[in-house]
Every structure is written in structure tokens, then in C-alpha cells.
Design goal:
By secondary structure, the protein is an alpha+beta fold. The chain has a single domain, classed as 2,3-Dihydroxybiphenyl 1,2-Dioxygenase, domain 1 (Roll). It is 19% helix and 32% strand. The strands form two sheets. Strands 9, 10, 11, 12, 13, 14, 15, 16, 17 and 18 form a ten-stranded mixed beta sheet that branches. An eight-stranded mixed beta sheet has the order 2-3-4-1-5-8-7-6, with helices on one face. β15 and β16 form a beta hairpin. It is globular, with a radius of gyration of 20 Å. The two termini are 38 Å apart.
């Protein structure tokens, strides 16, 4: 069996959680409608070229930034929060020591912000503070769509999940569970966390780095259904890509939707709690020939193959791309079985 990297429980600086995402969008008005009416995010600020949004539970100024573009829509960066401003200086010193270029930049509505790229090439930013806005959690009369509470995690496709996991585990991340293909004996997915649930950043083996999805937590399954109903009534019905369904491997109910530019978002219920130091990574065997969901169809081919490019980043291909089960393949095989039977 492939040996997993070990967590550094005394990391050089303190990352606390996945925090925010930055997308570019061709039609800001249409994207604004999608994220406010279907997802239920709240606009914290906007101008002619940028919209900053947050969940109804979030007090930080934004967890999603949309920037106008006339080019192909991209993901500019993924963001993490660190505990204190001092951690940014520690991060800069750490990256200087290990030969990773890291630069402080000015970002609207954020405190000091540090930019760097991880070993796969994913562009990342660290921030300790943001402007604050009122928490809208109890303002139920103002909630729309799914009433998304907060940004929870994001998933990135990379050619070497263990190499990237090792980088983040050196920074204090822990593996909650991992996807393992028994035949060739390879790890094809790692779920890493810093906060007390299973996910902050997820890596799956595919050509990359490419941004796969960001996850927002909702309060109840009914909120997922409401998002589907609102999407259908506002002309976004065809943006529902996968679900509602129930993941296997200790995971929650889910719904995957694509915004007008193709960026993918997951709506999910809160994950299980993971805090204790003796919580060992959970091995989750996967069979490319079967459906790993507890119920619901496997993901469609689009979910498996399509992702958002990172701006200015070269995509690399893994030695073996793999051929995961898709809904199309699953239904085709079931049809063939019915004909044969």
C-alpha cells in the first residue's frame, strides 16, 4: 500500500481554514442573479467590474469575488485564512526558506495578503483579516435560494495528489480520508482539513492544476431542494449538474451546480466533526467499475472531465489519467445487462 504523508503538528505558521475564491465572469449581472437568488449569497460590495459576496452566516467581507472579464472565465486564486497577522510574516519566511516565491499584495477589503503557488501550481493567497459585515443568519426574511451559510472547502484537480498533500500536511493539514484504488494500489484522492470537519481542500488525480468546485454549507436538505426549485424558475435549471445525492465514504448530501460561466459549486450539509489527534485517515477503496455513491447515480462525464482553468497556470498530465465511473457509462452498462438478461 502507498504510504501516506505525515502531518506536521507544529507547522511553521497557522492556517485556520479555507476562506475564499476569486472567479472571473463574462456577465456579472447574470452571475449576480445566480449567486444571490439560487445560492442565496449576500452582496457585501459591488462596483462596475467586481462583486464581493458572502454567506448568511459569514461576518468576513467576502468568500467569493467575481471579476468582470471578456476572456475565458478563470479561477484567479483560492484563499486561506491564517490566525494572525504574524502568521503572514512566518509564512513569508517559511516560503523564502524552501524556495517558493511569495509576495505581499494589496487586495480590496482585505488586510495584508500573501500570494504564492503550491507545488502543483495552484495560485493561493493567505489573509489574516478582512473587513467585517453584519452576520445575517437570523435575518430569515432576507434569505434567498439555498440560503448558503458559509464557504466550507474547495477541490482542485492535480497530477500528483500525494505530493500536493505532503506540502499541505507540512503546514499542519490532516487527511480525513483518502480514495484508494485497490488493483494498482494507488491513492487517487485526498481530503485535507485544518478546521474541525473533514474538508478544507480536496485533491483528485486528473490533469491539473484545475479548479473543480467550491463547497458552501446549507442548514438543511430542504435548502438544497429549494435551490433546485429556484434555479428551475429563474432559468438556471440546466445548470444543475449532479444530484441531489448522498456521497459514500462518510460524506454528506450534495448538489453540484454550474454558474453561467461554468464555475462549479457544491451545496452540502455540515460535515462530521473531526478534532481529536487520534482520528486516523480513513481508507476509502474505490472501484472504477462501480458507483461509489450511497445513493444516486455516479457523477456525469462533465463532472469528471471538466474544470475551471487557473489564470496563467500550465496544466500537467498525470502518468495515468484513470477512467472513473460516470453516469453515462453506468446507465449504458445497466442497459446492456438488461438486454443480455
Amino acid at each position: 500500500m502507498t504510504e501516506l504523508p505525515s502531518t506536521n503538528f507544529n507547522p511553521p505558521f497557522n492556517i485556520t481554514r479555507a476562506s475564499h475564491l476569486i472567479f472571473t465572469a463574462r456577465d456579472l449581472k447574470r452571475s449576480r442573479d445566480f449567486y444571490t437568488e439560487v445560492m442565496g449569497l449576500i452582496v457585501s460590495d459591488e462596483d462596475a467590474d467586481t462583486i464581493w459576496l458572502r454567506g448568511v452566516e459569514e461576518i468576513a467581507h467576502h468568500s467569493l469575488t467575481l471579476k468582470r472579464t471578456t476572456d475565458r472565465p478563470m479561477c484567479e486564486r483560492v484563499g486561506f485564512r491564517v490566525f494572525s497577522d504574524e502568521d503572514l510574516d512566518k509564512a513569508k519566511s517559511h516560503f523564502d526558506r524552501i524556495g517558493i516565491k511569495a509576495d505581499f499584495v494589496e487586495v480590496p477589503h482585505q488586510g495584508r495578503t500573501l500570494h504564492f503557488s503550491d507545488p502543483a501550481g495552484t495560485p493561493v493567497e493567505l489573509v489574516a483579516t478582512m473587513e467585517r459585515r453584519p452576520r445575517m443568519y437570523t435575518k430569515i426574511h432576507q434569505h434567498k435560494g439555498a440560503g448558503a451559510l458559509r464557504m466550507d472547502h474547495y477541490q482542485v484537480l492535480v497530477p500528483d495528489v500525494l505530493a500536493n498533500a505532503r506540502f499541505y500536511m507540512d503546514l499542519g493539514f490532516r487527511i480525513s480520508d483518502y480514495l484508494y484504488v485497490e488493483g494498482p494500489g494507488v491513492v487517487v484522492g485526498t481530503f485535507l482539513h485544518r478546521k474541525n470537519n473533514p474538508w478544507d481542500i480536496v485533491f483528485l488525480t486528473r490533469s491539473g492544476p484545475r479548479f473543480h468546485h467550491g463547497g458552501y454549507v446549507v442548514e438543511a436538505f430542504e435548502d438544497i431542494v429549494r435551490a433546485c426549485d429556484v434555479a428551475g424558475n429563474l432559468g438556471f435549471g440546466d445548470r444543475i449538474e449532479h444530484g441531489p445525492g448522498r456521497h459514500g465514504h462518510q460524506h454528506a448530501y450534495y448538489l453540484y451546480v454550474r454558474d453561467p460561466d461554468g464555475h462549479r459549486t457544491e451545496l452540502l450539509l455540515p460535515g462530521i466533526q473531526l478534532i481529536d489527534i487520534d482520528e486516523a485517515p480513513l481508507k476509502c477503496p474505490v472501484d472504477p467499475k462501480s458507483n461509489s455513491n450511497l445513493w444516486g447515480l455516479p457523477a456525469p462525464r462533465s463532472w469528471v472531465e471538466e474544470a475551471t482553468s487557473f489564470a496563467g497556470v500550465t496544466v500537467k498530465t498525470p502518468p495515468v489519467e484513470g477512467s472513473p465511473m460516470t453516469a453515462e457509462k453506468y446507465l449504458s452498462e445497466k442497459k446492456a445487462e438488461a438486454v443480455m438478461g
